[in-house]
């Protein structure tokens, strides 16, 4: 059963458990690979997590001159292969979401790989499995469709990655109502 | 992601970003291909090596067939006689230099294969195309473009008949 990461941004309570989980994840060496933004600092407490959206046509991978960023068959865009990455940071510039991070010491790019060592065996990615407010969810296509349908009924203005943010992505996002000027009804 | 739902037509192996294709054209795969091709070429050249070894170490005692050329009475001293040897496509030239001195050469000029003929007056073999000259005694070129001698044919004279026995191996 193919599952996708689904981000329900409005649920985020800013606990940063996802960051902590990512930091502790195996092979990440104390570096987290996602972000929690304060949307409107000094005004309200709204926060949003953002990790790699795993584009169908990833600019980071296409811009890599060494083919160090690879696409897994599940659609996940993997972190740079250590033996191929030449540290040119093209991917960092190319990504419209500013996702790939660069480690100056190792001269190596690293980014969210959707916990491919877990998700390829259908175990939810670390961030989703620890999220206490269901902001990050690991859902089947069917469940995502049901959610979208429900929200469409309740609120005509609701969109989930539709129209696509920058291009088609494997991670689906439910934009928070505060960005759309509407309130989501549960 | 499948290949079908890509937003553009591109199957570009120089941009090999799909992990399933990681091994299709990487450096190691390329080296394997090169070494494999070298191996194929090496193996396929073995028959030629066999042919060369056969020739060089005389494994082949493929004597040319003994063939009657002419009767002694047909060729006066100083005259020549055309024949073909060892096959009907290899034209050759027999010359009687003295009473008991016969020489024969395959008469395709070693420059560009024009037929060489015997010029009794100058006592030389001449290629008319580019004025190549060959010594009748040895077959060596004495002038003109050719640089290699004419292939010599060994002869036997028995009972008033001249036979061609074999074409001498070319020694560089």
From TrEMBL, chain A:
Superkingdom of source: Bacteria
Any GO molecular function: metal ion binding
Alphabetized UniProt keyword annotations: 4Fe-4S, Iron, Iron-sulfur, Metal-binding
Location of the 4Fe-4S ferredoxin-type domain: 3-33, 39-74, 76-105
PROSITE patterns: 4FE4S_FER_1, 4FE4S_FER_2
Pfam families xrefs: Fer4_11 (PF13247)
PANTHER family on file: PROTEIN NRFC, PROTEIN NRFC HOMOLOG
Protein name per Swiss-Prot or TrEMBL: 4Fe-4S binding protein
Organism: Salicibibacter cibarius
Automatic annotation (TrEMBL), chain B:
The entry's keywords: 2Fe-2S, Disulfide bond, Iron, Iron-sulfur, Metal-binding
Protein name listed in UniProt: Rieske 2Fe-2S domain-containing protein
Organism: Salicibibacter cibarius
GO MF entries: 2 iron, 2 sulfur cluster binding; metal ion binding; monooxygenase activity; oxidoreductase activity, acting on paired donors, with incorporation or reduction of molecular oxygen
SUPFAM superfamilies, A to Z: ISP domain
Annotated ranges, domain Rieske: 67-164
Cited PROSITE patterns: RIESKE, TAT
